[in-house]
Amino acid sequence: MLDPVYYAVSAVMWCWHQLFGLLLGPSSGVAWALSVVFLVLTLRALLIRPFIAQVRSARAMRVIAPQLAELRKLYAEDRPRLMKETKALQSAHGVNLVGGCLPALLQLPVFLGLLHVLRYFNRPGLTFEQNAALPNYVFGPDQVRSFLEARLFGAPLSAYLSMPQQLLDSFGGHVERVDVAVVALPLMLVAAVATHFSARHSAQQQPPDSPTASAMRFTPWIFPLGALVGGLFFPFPIAILIYWLTNNAWTLVQQRIVFSRLPTTPSAPVPVVTAASTPALVPAEPPATPTVTQAGGGGTGKRKRHASGHLRSRRRR
């Protein structure tokens, strides 16, 4: 079902490895690591506009937070009316809750796709020669062999701390667990720190009275556990830790740039007109026919205007 995602992820990674392989060599661990880094950069570059829309929507939510609180008090006993008025207020101010989740929703399949592709470079139960003879989606057997032989400071890119020694030895030579730990542990710590700062910066942008504010308060301490616990106890390869670090570093830099350049508050808010607040229309009275009073003379001294607007002239006797 996720084969299109696996092919797309491996295709982007293959393109970047072709470029860096020409510069550093096809079996260079740095070339393969850079192909993972630029896979992340390619995805995040495509998500710049959705991220800006997400920031604008979040700031609009901060502006209308007092009005939403008033609506919750006013319609506390009328849930359908509360939902209707809340939706109308959010729509009038350009708040899009679904669009705010779009960047995270699009990154999840790429993360799972990269994890799957990395695991398929070194399939469990197969020897080095057997894995090197099998293609891995877009990667041919030559690229698979190149990946298995690549080392980043002595550690294979698809190795992880809890990997069985039998799998570590199937990378074309004996691999010490300490070599994997020397690379994985610093990556885990730096990725956790980057995750903490990016999550804290995101939490600071939430409206203080919103329902998500209380939950977001703990995310700077919960999200980094993904890198630490995943790297220590779960099959998170070194390349996944590189992905995690690059993704959160991009998020942190992007937040600094976008939050500093976008206005803190949107332009003039759009008032919401409801049926209860719409004043009744009162028909206007027709204007009175203007008359002109002539000074002096007998009678009423008034002359009527003709339909064309000119004064009627009196006949001379």
TrEMBL record:
CDD domains: 5TM_YidC_Alb3 (cd20070). Residues 32-258 form the Membrane insertase YidC/Oxa/ALB C-terminal domain. It is a multi-pass membrane protein. Keywords: Cell membrane, Chaperone, Membrane, Protein transport, Transmembrane, Transmembrane helix, Transport. Residues 301-317 have a biased composition (Basic residues). Interacts with the Sec translocase complex via SecD. Specifically interacts with transmembrane segments of nascent integral membrane proteins during membrane integration. This is Membrane protein insertase YidC. Pfam families: 60KD_IMP. Residues 281-317 are annotated as: Disordered. The lineage of its organism: Bacteria, Bacillati, Actinomycetota, Actinomycetes, Pseudonocardiales. Required for the insertion and/or proper folding and/or complex formation of integral membrane proteins into the membrane. Involved in integration of membrane proteins that insert both dependently and independently of the Sec translocase complex, as well as at least some lipoproteins. Aids folding of multispanning membrane proteins. The chain crosses the membrane at residues 30-52, 94-118, 220-245. It comes from the Bacteria. The gene is yidC. It is found in: Cell membrane; Membrane. It comes from Pseudonocardia alaniniphila. InterPro entries: YidC/ALB3/OXA1/COX18, YidC/Oxa/ALB_C, YidC_ALB_C. Belongs to the OXA1/ALB3/YidC family. Type 1 subfamily.
